[in-house]
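Reviewer comment 2.1 asked that we show a complete input and output for one of the modelled complexes. We chose the zinc ion case, as it is the one discussed in the main text.
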Amino acid sequence: MKILAIETSCDETAIAILDAEGDTTHATFRVLGNALLSQIDIHKEYGGVFPMLAKREHAKNLVPLLAAALEEAELVHENTQALAQPLIEKLSVLLEREPGLGDALLAFLTETEVPAIDAIVVTHGPGLEPALWVGVNFAKALALAWDKPLIGANHMEGHLLSALAQENGDTLVIENVSLPVVGLLISGGHTQIVAMKEWFSYELLGETRDDAVGEAFDKVARMLELPYPGGPEISKRAEEARAEGAEKHPLPFPRPMIGDTTCNFSFSGLKTAVMYQLKKMESITDTEKKAIAREFEDAVADVLWKKTSRALIETSAKTLVIGGGVSGNVHIRRVFEEQVAYEHPEVELRIPPRALTTDNAVMIGMSGYFRYLRGIRDTTDALRADGNLSLA
Ligand code: KG4
Ligand code: ZN
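Response of the prediction step:
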């Protein structure tokens, strides 16, 4: 079946069209169309994501991205029939709160025949609520106009399930998954360890008490006067420090909560330690910046691994996945690969293809497909954006 998936929870506007088949024993997702626009350059100026600006950009970009994704999937056909007046009225009321979206969408719907898709999936949480609403209202309008089933998806489930997938040409395959699965979800908004003992049933094993790990990367980057998003900037410098064989920083940063008996995290103390270190230094050279980036990254990787290892033991997990933007981090990937092989050789580690680590609509389509199989449907009246939507 063909799924149209929409993602607008943060600063990426993304639309994907997947041809999905099979079930959890062997599911395949062929990516027919994939259109994504990152707002990073716009938010860079502000040093972080600005929700109302994100909302405006999503509204502006959704229709062109939809057109591009449908075109790539060869699903656009010209229509010459006008939209019925009652439908126009219904859509206008629905899109009243989405300035910049309504007129463009009505024009697009008038010109385009109903495409051969079978369901529409949209992220309805967690994330920035104003941003989520644009995607949700857009999806509702499409579901109404084209008379297609509507499914709300959880962004974190998308990160988790897509991390189980393996690439095979233009197709993503989920197969041979041994339960229980432990998922470490690390992004700009979340740091969680979840267990999936049965398919699609999640248990929260631990989470951050304060900052999300991506947020800590972004804040430390700002202290080092590096641009947003800070993760890749810190990673680049830390890798350079390692490659140059520079001595480790003489003052190791703390590993907050590493020794306690929970799977919870805290990153604000680590961030503060970096701040104090910088305060002590009058000026900072590039070499010192690299050393601090490396030491910070080492501390983060240590804590992430230790807590994940605890979760693997607690659940007797057979599979470990890491997902979310921070899972693209080279050093964290390396530490996890080495440590799983060394400490938990019975566990299979799956790391998502790099293009799937940061926000995208393909992962939303995957999660939506499994929801569809389970008979989950939402209605255009009831589906709501929920910034704090939880997985477990
Ligand atoms: O999953 P994501 O794209 O969006 C959210 O749902 O938050 O994650 C974005 C976060 C940002 O904080 C960014 O700095 C971080 O992921 N990030 C990284 C790397 N690439 C992105 N952090 C560390 N190393 C990276 N290579
Ligand atoms: Zn995300």
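The chain has a mean pLDDT of 95. We note this here for comparison with the apo prediction described in Section 3.2.
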